[in-house]
Specification:
The chain is an all-alpha fold. It is 55% helix and 0% strand. The protein is built from two helices and no strands. Helix 1 crosses helix 2. The N and C termini lie far apart (68 Å).
Length: 67
């Protein structure tokens, strides 16, 4: 399916160069895949944060050593 988009040429050229993509189409496809993966990851993190562990997790637990 062909779609026409107005994309900033500077951004597209930089994405092609940084990603070492052969064409603009490859750069756009890679960007969309990365965007979708990132959004799915964020959705998973949000679901985990709202699970039964809510409030029980602390990134730095107390360091009380038992002797």
């Amino acid at each position: 399916m062909q779609t026409h988009l107005a994309v900033n040429d500077r951004l597209l050229d930089e994405a092609r160069r940084l990603g070492r993509h052969k064409s603009k189409r490859d750069a756009v496809a890679a960007a969309l895949k990365e965007y979708i993966a990132n959004r799915r990851h964020l959705a998973g993190v949000t679901v985990w944060n709202l699970s039964a562990h809510e409030g029980a997790y602390h990134p730095r637990p107390s360091r009380a050593y038992k002797r």
